Amino acid sequence: MIAACLASGAAVACLGTPAVAAGGAAQPTAKLQHALDGVVAAGAPGAVVLVRHGDRTTRLSSGLGNVAPRTPMRVADRYRIGGLTKSFTATVVLQLVRERKLALGDTIEHWLPGVISNGDAISVRQLLNHTSGIADYVRDPAYLAPYLAGDLTHVFDPRAGVQIAADQGPLFAPGSQLSYSNTNYVLLAMIVEAATGNTIASELQARLFEPLGLRHTSFSTSPKIHGAHVHGYVFLDAGPFDVTSWSPSGSGAAAAIVSNTDDVARFYRALLRGRLLPRPLLRTMQTIDPVATGGVPDAGILGGGWGLGLLRERFPCGNAWGHDSEIPGYMTAAWSSKSGTRQVAVIVNSHHSHGEPVSRAMRHLLATAYCAR
């Protein structure tokens, strides 16, 4: 049963509480709470939303953070942020570009000789914006097999995933199409390690987590989430199945970070305000190749495109920058205005197995939260 439910989702990769402003005062947020409750009413165990406009921050929760025992969702709890990890990894890469330790035009072959058959034709830039043509190893049965068999804590080396992707050969000529691939970001981590002599975990810690004071954020390799955390679920015929312990070992620099909504928002705010990269490099990060476009044409979210580790999304009230993700047990999203003054971050503790109504309700929540005045 678990295999039938998780196969495609693994490949991809609420009880109301009062809103609290930055100064601690309660705010009237009925419309936002209604949209948040709608995610739970649609079938998710729980959800959290953080909304920030200027210096005012609102945090709301709904439903359950743990189904058994029944525990209310809490706004400060940690969770697996999945693909949002890519924005962190991309920022480290671009910091190394600023330091002239590598260049966007460098090839895979330059840094990782012999790892990819056409590595001399694939640049760091193409890894960052998913135009490399390299297959996504997390869609391969060889990666999925132990997890779908029920061994959720199985340890998988992401470098073995690179070999799985390399064995499949290129999907298309580099730079000619867009295809989201976690393999790209595992390769980027390997390049960071080759360029610095340090692990990607230590680079993330030293460059981002510590300077920004992200006390609830860590690069996870263990199935156990330390501290108060949100449990993640998939839905089987018998009901919700807890997959919190699904090992992040195979996700690496593509999806392994654990954080909470406040830390996620703080990271994107610092990035978009120019604290982490000089303005010219930030503009490069936000530059979208014509072939790297896409979007979700639903709930008023009309589409955007891929920059370098950042997505542009179009909401009814304007463009936003950030990332979203769906991994076993969790749907996450974080969107910010170009200046970082308007932000929304959302966690829902289930993935596509809950059905389209939850996904639709989450998109409605995001649009409501981001465009609220």
Question: What features would you describe in this structure?
Answer:
The relative contact order is 0.19. The chain has twelve helices and 14 strands. The strands form three sheets. A nine-stranded antiparallel β-sheet has the order 3-2-1-14-13-12-11-10-9, sandwiched between helices. It has a single domain (2-327, 346-371), classed as DD-peptidase/beta-lactamase superfamily (Beta-lactamase). By secondary structure, the chain is an alpha+beta fold. The protein is globular, with a radius of gyration of 19 Å. Helices cover 33% and strands 19% of the residues. Residues 1-28 and 295-302 have low confidence and may be disordered.
How do the helices and strands line up, and which of them pair or pack?
Elements: H1 2-11, H2 30-41, E1 46-53, E2 56-66, E3 71-72, E4 79-80, H3 85-98, H4 108-111, H5 124-128, H6 141-148, H7 158-168, H8 182-196, H9 200-209, E5 218-219, E6 233-236, E7 239-242, E8 257-259, H10 261-272, H11 279-285, E9 293-294, E10 304-306, E11 311-315, E12 318-327, E13 330-336, E14 342-348, H12 356-371
Antiparallel strand pairs: 1-2, 1-14, 2-3, 4-8, 5-8, 6-7, 9-10, 10-11, 11-12, 12-13, 13-14
Helix pairs in contact: 2-12, 3-8, 7-8
